[in-house]
Design brief:
single chain; HIT family, subunit A; five-stranded antiparallel β-sheet; 3 helices; 5 strands; 27% helix
Length: 131
């Protein structure tokens, strides 16, 4: 069984910060930074790419609300909001969730680093990917 589904069913204890009919938000057991919170739809869906639009919009509205709350209560200097899609991108639990990771300074335990890959033909990519 999915660990998040077990939390939703209250079979596993969690530090719940918010709950409504469709969504639950709780402290991540692996606190990358103080206040690291997960927002999870109650209906099991593997990734945000599979999520119904209404639920996705609700999750993101709550990410804004809870993110602001965490920033204010914890005096954080910033916030990472992210969702990993599939294992190749770092998703470890196959149930859609959004991480709210309060940031305090450049020396906290969360490291997100972007480097430029090999040069890409942006015109060709635009032609291929344009909706």
């Amino acid at each position: 069984m999915c660990i998040f589904c077990s939390i939703i069913k209250k079979e596993i204890p969690a530090g719940i910060l918010y709950e409504d009919e469709d969504v639950i938000a709780f402290l991540d057991i692996s606190q990358v930074t103080k206040g690291h919170t997960l927002i999870v739809p109650k209906k099991h869906v593997e990734t945000m790419l599979d999520c119904e639009e209404e639920t996705l919009a609700h999750v993101m509205m709550l990410a804004k609300k809870i993110g602001n709350h965490l920033m204010n209560k914890l005096s954080a200097n910033g916030m990472n909001v992210l969702s990993n899609v599939y294992q190749a991108a770092g998703q470890s639990v196959p149930h859609f969730h959004v991480h709210l990771i309060p940031r305090y300074d450049e020396n906290d335990a969360c490291i997100i680093h972007f480097e430029e890959s090999e040069k890409q033909d942006l015109d060709a990519l635009q032609s291929l990917l344009k909706l």
